[in-house]
Amino acid sequence: MYTLMTLILLVPLLLFLFRHLLSRRLRQRKPYPPGPKGLPIIGNILMMNQFNHRGLAKLSRTYGGLLHLRLGISHLFVVSSPQIARQVLQVQDHVFSNRPTTIAIRYLTYGQSDLAFCNYGPFWRRMRKLYVMMLFSRKRAESWASVDEEVHKAVRSVAANVGKPLNVCKVAFSLTRDITFRAAFGSSSSSSNEGRLDEFLEIIQEFSKLFGEFNVADYVPSWLSWIDPQGINKRVEKARKSLDCFIESIINDHLDKKKTEKNVNVDEVTDMVDQLLAFYKEEVKVKDSETKINLDNIKGIIMDVMFGGTETVALAIEWVLTELLRSPENMKRVQDELATVVGLERWSVEDTHLEKLSFLKCVLKDTLRLHPPFPLLLHETVEEAEVSGYFIPKGSRVMVTPTLLGVTRLRGPTRKYSTRVGRRSCPGMQLGMYAFELAVAHLLHCFTWRLPDGVKFGDVDTIEGPGLTVAKANSLVAVPIKRLLCPMVLESHNV
Ligand code: HEM
């Protein structure tokens, strides 16, 4: 009886105190940024077809540089002003350094075991160190030098098809696929490898779509996450299985190679996978810790390189050719510059030429601004934050839209802010940019590109496809024509 009386008195008192503290806290904290009003419980979920970078950019024009959306139980903030981007990516980047996850991301990255999607902290720091060591050590620098050889190979393959309509997307993807494949897995494209190379491309293209897919199940409480109205779970499972088989076959090939080549020591490792496996052999001996790297992490790094190194550069190459075919004056200016700097009597563009190709560089940067391969930078708050007088709760998704941050140089003033900053910035950008510049310089120096018969400049569209990365929805088809005064690359290499 006594206990019951105490409870009857205590419960309302506790409820009153809780309400009081909560409302005091709500009164004390800053407001959320503006955004479209959502429905109770589901918030703005019904607007989800607008949550790609173009749709979010449009919403930002109405609501401002920091926009707030409610997606079921989650908060989403969209940053489109350079000042706020500076806060998120630079000044307060320690607070915004987690990556948001979705069911697809968690499953496809072996539970955020890779570098790109793991959360910020000591483990991320160790992974990033390992990544840089594996990719940019002196040994790796030698294998990235193969970029030049693979670009030359691509030029020869285009030269063998002059006068015929080519799918530029396929040309660009086979080039970047070969660069990544060779640097990371040691083997270059050959007819015996062709099936594997195609499989590699299929996997990353499906991954890109799944990473960017908006899945309702991500925004409901976890006990409801089995709902799958869009059929994403099945696709995710299939994609992960294909990736796993692919990476395991690569790892097994490397282990078999070691068995057949007796007395191979760690210094003789030839490619990134060799190096990762040599590292892993030592790591298993280390006692368990927060930063210990396991086999899933090794697979995750391989996945990041496959994904980061191939699609970004290939998409950028296709977009540059698209923009130049839509603008014959700029195409002429780029090609005149190449003729002056490199000379029509030689076909190979060297490092030293790239530095002098200022208009080409300007076109490349401009294209990346108009069509950034990753149009939404995905971040998540590690703790509560305050930006520009607004409140951002812990665990919120924050998307920065580079398309809105930069204004184009060819068509207006230079951009004010670079997105290549902050702890989670791209570690492979320099390498990617080198491959991008070298490939485009060669393709535009060695060939004049025409549209197929019956297609006019105005017909070349810039419609974007879905996904985390932005590809052209309709692949560009163009006809390469011989341009140089020197013998064709084809003849000089007996291809
Ligand atoms: C021109 C080509 C490239 C572009 C445009 C690009 C773009 C980006 C962007 C926008 C980010 C996210 C930055 C952020 O969230 O603040 C990123 C991260 C990343 N990129 Fe790249 N990238 C390129 C090339 C590469 C290459 C060649 C590799 C690997 C070989 C690579 C591997 C990565 C990884 C692992 C991350 C995640 C880093 C982290 O979270 O700590 N990228 N990239």
UniProtKB/TrEMBL annotation:
InterPro entries: CYP450_84A (IPR053062), Cyt_P450 (IPR001128), Cyt_P450_E_grp-I (IPR002401), Cyt_P450_sf (IPR036396). GO terms for molecular function: heme binding; iron ion binding; monooxygenase activity; oxidoreductase activity, acting on paired donors, with incorporation or reduction of molecular oxygen. It comes from the Eukaryota. Pfam families: p450. Transmembrane segments: none annotated. PANTHER family: CYTOCHROME P450 84A1-RELATED. This is Cytochrome P450. The lineage of its organism: Eukaryota, Viridiplantae, Streptophyta, Embryophyta, Tracheophyta.
